[in-house]
Design goal:
The protein is of the alpha+beta class and 129 residues long. It has helices at residues 20-31, 83-92, and strands at residues 10-17, 34-39, 44-49, 58-62, 74-79, 96-104, 107-113, 119-124. The protein has an 8-stranded mixed β-sheet, covered by helices on one side.
Length: 129
């Protein structure tokens, strides 16, 4: 029986690279996504949307500012019920907190590295979602 929790689901996928525009254009041409610019102030990152429309399926971001140390991999954002509790378990179980908890899309997230060296993000949705 479901308790309404979305914990454990993949909530988002991002790719952070030096040339966000070029890579967004690459996937636009290869996969057929439309690019939907997201203003980051003095440059745009991109939400990638299916040609048929609808919700964005992933993001392509520039490796700038706070994203400058994110590796160029498709990063999964795993939904958790409590990002603080999950981040604590990461370090207790031999993982690393690569990016401290901070706000994102009304919720909060952090970037972690598991004991094998794989990097992903943990995302806690807003309380009212």
């Amino acid at each position: 029986m479901s308790n309404g929790s979305q914990s454990g689901r993949i909530g988002w996928v991002d790719l952070t690279v030096a040339d966000g525009q070029g890579v967004a254009d690459f996937y636009r041409d290869v996969v057929g996504w439309k690019t939907d610019p997201v203003s980051m102030g003095d440059y745009d990152d991109f939400c990638m949307v299916p040609q048929t429309g609808g919700d964005a399926v992933c993001g392509v971001c520039h490796a700038r500012g706070t994203n400058s140390d994110i590796p160029p991999v498709w990063m999964l954002y795993f939904v958790v019920d409590d990002v603080e509790a999950s981040a604590k378990i990461v370090t207790e179980r031999g993982g690393k907190l690569r990016r401290e908890i901070r706000p994102l899309a009304g919720g909060r997230f952090c970037v972690i590295e598991d004991p094998a060296g794989a990097v992903c993000a943990l995302y806690q949705a807003p309380a009212n979602s």
